[in-house]
Amino acid sequence: MSSPDEDPPTEPERWRDLDMLLSRPGNLVHADFNPSPGLRDSLGSLVEVLVVGAGGLGCELLKDLALSGFKNIHVIDMDTIDVSNLNRQFLFRVQDVGKSKAEVAAKRVMERVSGVNIVPHFCRIEDKEIEFYSQFSIIVLGLDSIEARSYINSVACGFLEYDSDDKPIPETLKPMVDGGTEGFKGHARVIIPGTTPCFECNIWLFPPQVKFPLCTLAETPRTAAHCIEYAHLIKWNEALKRAELFGISGVTYSFTQGVVKNIIPAIASTNAIVSAACALEALKLISGCSKTVSNYLTLETLNMVLFEVHYFSLTICRYNGLDGTHINVSEFAREKDCLVCGPGTLIELGTSTTLSEFIKMLEEHPKLLMSRASVTHEGDNLYMQAPEVLEQMTRPNLGVPMFELLKGAARTTVHVTGMAENNGKKVSSLRKLRVTFKGVEESSKMDERVTFKGVEESSKMDESS
C-alpha cells in the first residue's frame, strides 16, 4: 500500500502481477486450480475472510489481504488504540488514540484500496455466536495470545465433520492461517482441520511460562531477571540495588518491563514479513494457484529476508545476519485422538438422560473436565450459561432428555462451551462431542465409548451384556 502522501496506483496497474499469477498454469499449482483472467474478481466477490486481531500484525494483514484481491473482509478486536501502538501499527494516528482498533483499521484500508469492504467488530472473540464464524471461507489470525488462538482453533475445528469411516468431509473444512511475531522472530502457519496438526495438537511447541525458584531469588541470584523478579515479589524499588550488590548488569527499564509484565518488543519489519507470508498462504489456499506450506514456516532474523520453499512437511526458514540462511525440513504429526480437530469425543447416553445430567457428566469426564458448560446442537441453543436472558430462556431444557432435545437422532454431534483446563489455567474452551444413545444404535467402535463416570467400555463388556 502506498504511503499516505502518494497517490494510489491506478486500475488495473495495481492488480497486474496478481492477475498474471491467477491466469497462468504452473508446476506447483493445486490439482483443482483453474487459471482465468477473471479469477481475482470471482474470488473477491465469493470469498469472505475473517481477520482476528487488529494490532501490529493485524494492520499488516488487512492491508495485504486487501491488496491480494480479497474484497469481503471482517476484522474482530477488543482493544482500543494506545499511544505506544503508533510506532508499528501504521494504520493509526495520534488522533485515533482511545478508539477501536478494528474500526479505525477497517476505515483506513478502505480509504486506500478501492472495492474492498471491511466490516469491523469491536468485541471479544468469545462474544460472537459460533454461527458467526461459519460464514467465512478462511480465518487469518494475527494474535499474541495462546488462549485466543486456542479458542479460535477449537471454533474452526468444530465445523469439521467426519464420515462413517472417520475421514474428514471436505465441504466442512474451514482452513486457518496463523501468524505470530516476537521481536525479530515470527511464524506463518497453515492449519487445515483434520489434515494438518491443529493448534492443540502442537501446543507443546509453545514454551511454558518461566518460573523462578524462590530460594534462588532470595539467596543466590545469577541473572538480571532474578533481581527484577525478586524486587517484583518483595520490594519493587530495590531491583537495581540488588543487581549492583551481586555484581549483575542488565537491569534496564525495557528489560524490567519484559520480566514483570511479559512485554516483548515489537518490530515493524517482522510484522510486515510475517503478514506477507500469511496473506500469500491465504491466497494459495483459496485459489489453488500454488501449493501451501504443509503447516509451519518460522523466521529468526536480524536482517530479514524471506525464502519460501514448498514441502509436504514442516518448513523452517531462518535467516540470521551473522550466520546466513538455514532451511530445515521435519515433520509434525497430527494427533489422531486430538480432542479439538478429531472426530470428537464419543459419549454414550441413555435415552432418559436429561440435559442437566449431561452437563454434570462433562464436569466429571476425565478428558473434558469442563465446568459451566453451554450446549448447542445444529445452531440451536440447548442451554446457555450466559447472558442471563438466554439462560432463563433455555433453563426449562435442563429437565428434558437429551434424546428428545436431539430430535431422536441415534448418533449426532453437539458443541459445548465452558471453562476447561489449558496449560494449568482455566480458560474458555469449545469442544465437539459425538453423542450416541444406548439401545438405539450399536457402534462398531465400542472400545471408544465412555460412560457417565468416564470409564471406558470394552467390546467384551458389551457382548456380555
Could you give a quick summary of the protein structure above?
One of its GO terms (molecular function) is ATP binding. The protein has 465 residues and is an alpha/beta fold. It has helices at 16-22, 39-46, 56-66, 101-112, 130-134, 146-158, 214-219, 224-233, 239-245, 253-261, 268-287, 355-364, 388-394, 402-405, 459-464; strands spanning 48-52, 72-76, 117-121, 138-141, 176-182, 185-191, 296-300, 314-320, 324-330, 345-349, 371-377, 380-383, 411-422, 425-437.
CATH superfamily of the largest domain: NAD(P)-binding Rossmann-like Domain
- Mean of residue pLDDT values: 80
N-to-C order of helices and strands: HHEHEHEHEHEEHHHHHEEEEHEEHHEEH
Structural class: alpha/beta
Portion of residues within helices = 25-40%
Radius of gyration: 25 Å
Strand % is 15-25%
Low-confidence parts lasting 5 or more residues at pLDDT below 50? 302-330, 442-465
Report the major sheet.
7 strands, mixed
How many strand elements? 14
Q: Output the strand order for the largest sheet.
A: 3-2-1-4-5-6-7
Distance between the termini: 69 Å
Shape: globular
Draw up the topology in text.
Elements: H1 16-22, H2 39-46, E1 48-52, H3 56-66, E2 72-76, H4 101-112, E3 117-121, H5 130-134, E4 138-141, H6 146-158, E5 176-182, E6 185-191, H7 214-219, H8 224-233, H9 239-245, H10 253-261, H11 268-287, E7 296-300, E8 314-320, E9 324-330, E10 345-349, H12 355-364, E11 371-377, E12 380-383, H13 388-394, H14 402-405, E13 411-422, E14 425-437, H15 459-464
Parallel strand pairs: 1-2, 1-4, 2-3, 4-5, 10-14
Antiparallel strand pairs: 5-6, 6-7, 8-9, 11-12, 11-13, 13-14
Helix pairs in contact: 3-11, 8-9, 8-10
